[in-house]
Amino acid sequence: MISISILGTGNVAKHLWDTFSKHKEIKVNQVIGRNLDAIAYYRNKTKASSDFKSITDSDIYIIAVSDDAISTVSQFLKDKKGLVIHTSGSAPLNELPSNLRTGVFYPLQTFTKGQPIDFKEVPICLETKVEADGQLLHKLASLISNRVYFVDSEQRKKLHLTAVFANNFSNHMFHIAHEICEKSNLSFDILKPLISKTVKKIETLSPYESQTGPARRTDKGTMQKHIDLLKEENHKEIYRLLSRSIQETYGKEL
Amino acid sequence: MISISILGTGNVAKHLWDTFSKHKEIKVNQVIGRNLDAIAYYRNKTKASSDFKSITDSDIYIIAVSDDAISTVSQFLKDKKGLVIHTSGSAPLNELPSNLRTGVFYPLQTFTKGQPIDFKEVPICLETKVEADGQLLHKLASLISNRVYFVDSEQRKKLHLTAVFANNFSNHMFHIAHEICEKSNLSFDILKPLISKTVKKIETLSPYESQTGPARRTDKGTMQKHIDLLKEENHKEIYRLLSRSIQETYGKEL
């Protein structure tokens, strides 16, 4: 049995609670957060409080708050003997007090309110100062996920950065496509099989090999027609920059 | 039975041949293309030739060549009575000779050599000058796909443009993520569940609703850290432009 205190009530905290609470080998002792509305969700489920001074003894304290607040919350754990971990992709391990047993438990996934997550497929990136704590954290992570990795602070920063490209920026590309569809009375549904295929392709090919389109084949005529069709200056600028970047990737002259 | 001449030997032509040849109600009379290596593939399968003067009578002539060559190839069909169609997303219907029965058959998918396609899920966008030809084309398209749409030339141009954002540019985002992973000794596989989830989310939410990340929440600290982490000027520029575009989308001050 691993006992846990969850500190924080945002998306990550909530998804972790939902998953942990289903496992017999994990006991969530309490959830603590400043947000009273968010805390209300846990009232009849576990001990829930907005008072960070009420932290009880647990094997692991999970600080699942915004990066800016990690250090502040960790001050309430000064005299704790359990393992203190944060869940941030970009904060380093040493954001936590050096005199404590500390670690990182970074679930690499995009969490949305109200959308359930199957943690089994969520990569969980771990880091600890000492090996014994790594084993404890690995035990916890393996209970909920089949994809557990050890990733140090430098690598994790890079990973968080790549997630912005792989998720946030690709989603923004979908958004621009959606916007243009709406303005042209086209259903965005027509594009969905193409989007699915784009992702299926990179299961077997690298994105480098998968690339197609006018920029890939230096089809200047089509690129110019597309830029002329775009109405927003911002979209033109994105089209130009990404087309140039694709052409540079394949070593074509501009 | 619908009889067909395929004119062209590129990816689209080949994928159409592979699909058509499996259907009893479709008969491919011939495949014609200039590329002798490509034509060799069809030698023992159907009548294959590199001589455009050898075009026989068919119900439908499918011009599946690059946009620049559509007009040239259509000159060989001057005296034909069948329906002459092209498969381009960006060329208008009137790229084909006005004295012929003409149409467009645009499969909205990304075709890669050697990767088989399940046409049932490929949206096929049709356009014809007259309704009777529309019915013929709809019959052909429905034999191979469950997603058949009528889309006029103006809309199709927009659709082709949105496909560049939805497929080509999102794939380039995956490529940049892949590049950074490689340079940091991280397996790109760690990112694959995140990428899958990005696409699954937009089955039920709009991309507007799905957006997460530092730009979405105007987390300037993280954005600056990411820009500092990026080594290539080109990647910095893309990060800045797309983050600005996301912030503008959500009406935040810059």
Automatic annotation (TrEMBL), chains A, B:
Annotated ranges, domain DUF2520:
122-246
Q: Which domain of life does this protein belong to? A: Bacteria
> Residue limits of the Pyrroline-5-carboxylate reductase catalytic N-terminal domain?
4-83
The record's annotation in InterPro entries points to: 6-PGluconate_DH-like_C_sf, DUF2520, NAD(P)-bd_dom_sf, P5C_Rdtase_cat_N, TM1727-like_C_sf
Q: What is this protein called?
A: DUF2520 domain-containing protein
Q: Which organism is it from?
A: Ulvibacterium marinum
Q: Which Pfam families match?
A: DUF2520, F420_oxidored
